[in-house]
Write a structure and sequence with these properties.
The protein is 53% helix and 6% strand. By secondary structure, the chain is mainly alpha-helical. The mean pLDDT is 97. The strands form four sheets. A two-stranded antiparallel ribbon has the order 1-4. Strands 2-3 form a two-stranded antiparallel sheet. A two-stranded antiparallel sheet has the order 5-6. It has 15 helices and eight strands. The chain has one domain (3-386): Glycosyltransferase (Alpha/alpha barrel). It has helices at 3-13, 24-29, 37-53, 56-69, 93-102, 105-120, 141-158, 164-178, 210-226, 232-249, 276-291, 298-314, 345-348, 358-372, 375-386; strands at 138-140, 179-180, 185-186, 189-191, 315-318, 321-324, 327-328, 353-354.
């Protein structure tokens, strides 16, 4: 068993559905765990591990975990549609797999529950989903990963592709409203009403935030991978956005650390640091995009180098236990009663940095499964990890 699989074994062995080791926010808060995107990211990664390695233990753990959260009528432990929280949709994408593999109808019913929220989600005047009910008229890059991958998968598999125009329009709106042509990066958030305290005159937040760029990058590739044949306009436009984004990100990979920084356009500024979760998501974007032919094959090497740099800098062993560090615990914009979260540089570098949180661990494992599929170059990269 290699070092990364040994790490995953440890995380599974020390986790239970009501207290997963990788959900640091819940552990720190001391709250009962409910249906959430952090566990969702880990379930996505574990099902990828099962699919690529063929090892049953990853699926068996994920299905036991999900079984705790999904009731027989399809309702979800701790889920409330009234919050209209796009984060709550994220874990829904794994329900398609466990429904097909387990045959349990409750997972099919849960898919419908989450799609019901998609149908009723409040929208901006431009047709984009609000990020949450508490963030009216706000679009965050995070939300594209949280909701649109599930939406695309549902549309492709269960709705005759009828949602493609809607999904495409929402990505186009983000490209038109949230892209900063001077820095050639996307800002973290956009308020279509222009009323949010953190918004500038364009309605955008002031700085890019690395993990939001990572969510967006992964969403571009994962949504495009779900598009059925025969929808070339949608697919080709998504690939064009992804290729532009891939090229632009190269300028923000730090030459000394070969990672990207928490505030990516402020490399070297006091307090800034190479951040694991966003760097891993962008490495995954490069690796999967190159494998599927959406990006030039040169990006596979870029992704592999970022992954190796994360391992060298932040993968460590203490008392026989492996840990992954350098993970920003959380960051957001507002709401109105939390003006500390103002999208400033000072805010983004003030949030805690932790180990083993699934927001970093899951994309790290998604990079690993991409390298397993990358032939000799992937084997060479993983051999370097085992030497550490």
């Amino acid at each position: 068993m290699n070092i990364i699989e040994r790490y995953v074994e440890r995380m599974m062995a020390e986790s239970a559905p009501d207290r997963p080791l990788w959900n640091i926010e819940k552990i720190n808060a001391g709250k009962e765990n409910g249906w959430n995107y952090i566990d969702g990211c880990m379930m996505i990664a574990l099902l990828n591990m099962h699919r690529i390695t063929g090892e049953a233990r990853y699926y068996e753990f994920a299905e036991r975990f999900l079984d705790y959260y999904v009731f027989e009528d399809g309702s979800l432990r701790g889920f409330s549609e009234e919050e209209y929280n796009l984060d709550s949709i994220c874990e829904g994408r794994v329900l398609f797999d466990v429904w097909q593999l387990s045959g349990k109808e409750k997972y099919r019913k849960a898919i419908d529950v989450l799609y019901g929220q998609i149908q009723r989600q409040p929208r901006t005047h431009e047709g984009s989903f609000w990020h949450k009910a508490i963030y009216p008229n706000q679009v965050w890059l995070d939300g594209l990963y949280m909701a649109q991958v599930f939406y695309a998968r549902y549309t492709t598999q269960m709705d005759g592709c009828r949602g493609y125009e809607d999904i495409h329009r929402q990505f186009r709106t983000v490209r038109e409203r949230m892209y900063d042509p001077e820095m050639k990066l996307y800002r973290h958030g956009y308020d279509a009403s222009g009323k949010a305290f953190w918004a500038d005159e364009s309605g955008r937040s002031r700085f890019p935030w690395l993990r939001s760029l990572g969510w967006f990058s992964a969403a571009l590739i994962d949504v495009t991978a779900e598009i059925a044949p025969g929808h070339d306009d949608f697919r080709n436009d998504m690939i064009a956005i992804a290729r532009e984004h891939a090229q632009n990100l190269l300028a923000y990979i730090d030459k000394d650390t070969n990672m990207l920084y928490q505030v990516p356009n402020q490399i070297g500024r006091e307090g800034n640091y190479p951040e694991t979760s966003g760097s891993a998501m962008i490495a995954y974007f490069y690796l999967k995009g190159a494998r599927l032919g959406m990006l030039d094959e040169k990006y596979a090497q870029v992704g592999a180098q970022i992954f190796l740099s994360i391992c060298r800098r932040y993968l460590s062993e203490t008392d026989g236990k492996l840990n992954l560090g350098g993970i920003c615990l959380v960051a957001g914009l507002g709401p109105e009663n939390n003006r500390r979260r103002d999208g400033s540089y000072e805010y983004y570098i003030s949030e805690p940095v932790v180990q083993n949180d699934a927001k970093g661990l899951a994309p790290f494992l998604m990079c690993y499964t991409e390298l397993l599929q990358a032939g000799e170059s992937g084997k060479a990269a993983l051999a370097e990890v085992d030497k550490m």
